[in-house]
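Final report, Chapter 2: Outcomes

The project's central promise was a pipeline that accepts a single protein chain and returns its three-dimensional structure in a standardized token representation, suitable for archiving and comparison. That pipeline is now operational. To close this chapter, we reproduce one record exactly as it appears in the project archive, with the input sequence first and the structure output second.
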Amino acid sequence: MYLNSPVTSTESLSLTTESNSEETEIDKELIELPTLSRPTLAPTTAETIYLAPRGNSLAAQKSEELQKTMLGHRHERHLIILQDFPDPDALSCAWAYQLIAQQYDIKCEIIYAGTLSHQENIALVKLTTLPAQRWTTQSIKSKDLSCYQGLVLIDNQGTTSQLLPMVQQAGIPIVAVIDHHSLQTELKSEFVDVRPYVRATATIFTQYLQAGLLALDSSIGQHVKCATALMHGLRSDTNRLMQAQEEDFMAAAYLSRFYDAQLLNAILQANRSKRVMDVIERSLKNRIVQNNFSIAGVGYLRYDDRDAIPQAADFLVTEENVHTAVVYGIVHDEDDELEVVIGSLRTTKLTLDPDEFIKEAFGQDSTGRFFGGGRTGAGGFEIPMGFLSGGNENSAYAKMKWEVFDAQIKQKLLKLVNPKDNPIQS
């Protein structure tokens, strides 16, 4: 039952950043979320909050906490920082957050440092006019960051963004962290909603919408496009709903009232570029298969082609007798003269935890930051090459450098896949 009655006093609810089995069971039983009133203008007093708590539902609790957080930051200007290479889940949720924040006169800018190279991501942004901007590590130096009072991390916890350290150096505090990946680092944020057992951040945001943080209206074009983006994000992070749980299906059912099916189909029909197909071909030629793991190094890639790596992993995992695929390459950014080893993991094995597998395989740097992590069915890693970056105009040196990194990565992976094997000796 949806309630709209005002509440004069609210219960004190604790903020938690860790999931537990009790909360998971509560969320699985969630059928309807309470409706929070949507302010027509930015509220001026705390008494204008309309709350309808339902038991101890974590989704309802977090919706209430987020609303209170936004009330405390009215009339401010915030940055929403996405991972360097944002996916549909991150892009759609950032847009939803931006629309929610507008109701409290909070102006948000959505930024990322990398590039959109996956054809579906490009189509999503172009066809929906999703307001995301690329800020490189060079261009941010010319920005006036003093006009921002807070930053928000969505679908990441800062470990996959080159921009976060630079923004934090400007003294901008973290207002909110909303993510569905495993906890990566200690979070110092006013609002935290990290639920690793949820399949998509889009599911979390749809629950916010169901709770009344934003009343979607199918007559408003921006709402329809945002709902379409959320549906795409939910679909992509649940492997076309094949890995979806009850709450994901409930979120999809809610979005089905507002999204544009033809627009979503147009996004999904975006064609792969020739360069992506070349990387997939390289992964097929170079792969080794052991114990149902397919491992492939694809050599050097341009920065703009980085998203070909996860697409190659998506393709390799469909091979017969393969349950897990890992594809990696050296990505070169000519603008910043940087090189980084980037890899993606895809798995259909229910007992394999991508987050644990990648962290165990590659470990962490000197500051304690893991080189990678994951979620259900997928993961990724990024290893900066530092001093060894560049020098590729010498083809013999470039070939030798790749062979060393290729052998080292295979050795670390095969220690977990088959500890008896030594890829360097073989």
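Archive annotation: The longest strand covers residues 293-302.
This record, like all others produced under the grant, will remain available to the consortium after the project formally closes.
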